[in-house]
Amino acid sequence: MIAQLTGTVIAAGATHVVLDVNGFGVKALCTPATAAAVRLGQPATLATSLVVREDSLTLYGFTEADERDCFELVQSASGIGPKIAQAVVSVLSPDALRAAIAAENIAALTKVPGIGVKGAQRLVIELKDKINALAATSGLPATTEAPDWREQVKGGLEGLGWSARDADRACDNVAGMVETDPATPVAVLMRAALRSLAK
Fold first, then answer.
1. 116: CB partners within 8 A, 6+ apart
2. 25 with 75, same domain?
3. pTM of the predicted model, to two decimals?
4. What Cα–Cα distance (Å) separates residue 150 from each residue in 41, 55, 174, 187?
């Protein structure tokens, strides 16, 4: 199991990062927020999860180990593979996922592409006890409020080359979206922030 990678970022796309680890280029699939947080030519550390299939070995990378643990946990639910698990952690932070499952918030879970009402109900039933255990091991309560989206969006904008001042201004521009819907995905906030800066 490859649990962590540290190297220099040599390429990054919307959903992947390539790290040069001592001359060995390693590609990791990741969420848009993780891809936006890294910077070309700069060192980066990713918590990783290796998914082994008959015909492939696919590495998934995450900004934090907590996010990786949620990615792995979600796959333990029946009918959930790595693609949907990645969509879950793209839309819901670990704290938001724990809160949604603990509160049986089906509406929040169905915001994830590929998860319908039945899938969301299955996640709640199969993961409720497990997600609480995961929260306990991470030292976080199971019903924590949504994560600090501002820190993630600001970090992503700075990683794309914007100044801290511009990044703060963009976060102020999209703060109303969070007030309207606290479960707004970071990726959506990031796109809105970028649009506000482009004006």
1. 110
2. no
3. 0.65
4. 24, 39, 9, 12
